[in-house]
Amino acid sequence: MASWFPENVSTFGGDVDGIFWLIFYITTVWFFLTEGLIVYFVIRYRRKPGTKAAYVLGDTRTQLAWVVVPLVIVIVLDLLIDIRSTEVWAKIKGRMPPADVTVRVMGKQFNWEFTYPGPDGKFGTEDDRRVDNDLHVPVGKVVRLILTSKDVIHSFFLPHARLKQDVVPGREIPAWFQISKAGEYEIPCAELCGFGHSGMNGRLYAHTPEDYEKWIKENWPSEK
Prior knowledge:
By secondary structure, the protein is an alpha+beta fold. The chain has helices at 13-44, 61-94, 209-219, and strands at 101-108, 111-116, 129-132, 134-138, 142-149, 154-158, 163-167, 173-178, 183-188, 201-207.
């Protein structure tokens, strides 16, 4: 079943997958338990000659237990999921590590626009470098994104990094990831944003340190 997902290549992807599998196994066991009881009751208490139907008020402790016990179990399982999810949310959203690379991301109909600050490390200066649809990052480094939209709501999605974040006009939303394996990965838009939505698909290029340094020199050749 692990093949359901794209290969995980981010440092926090395993935590995200863990929540999915926790919910999946809980709901799977609960489904078969519930359906099994329904089938049992259908057979055990099926209509028989000479047997009258009984109207159950549910006012005895035994009868109430059929409602209260499942309710308590569901609440406990829900709290378990919430506690685990809160830990992962805090790790990904609440405690962003210091960035090694920062990129501004502009979503617009129908492409991604990535802006690098250049050697001076500042945005809005002459050495800024804008790249359409191609995001270049080094492997093993923390990449911080500053996400915004030019027109409508988009959703920045890195399936292989287990990162998805809505991109909203008028807001700058931070996000981060750290890739653990060099390669080329897709960056689709995960929010229906217009007639060209299906074609809004960028590429993430995760480079080895040497290849990333080469890319830097190609784009800022004056820097030695």
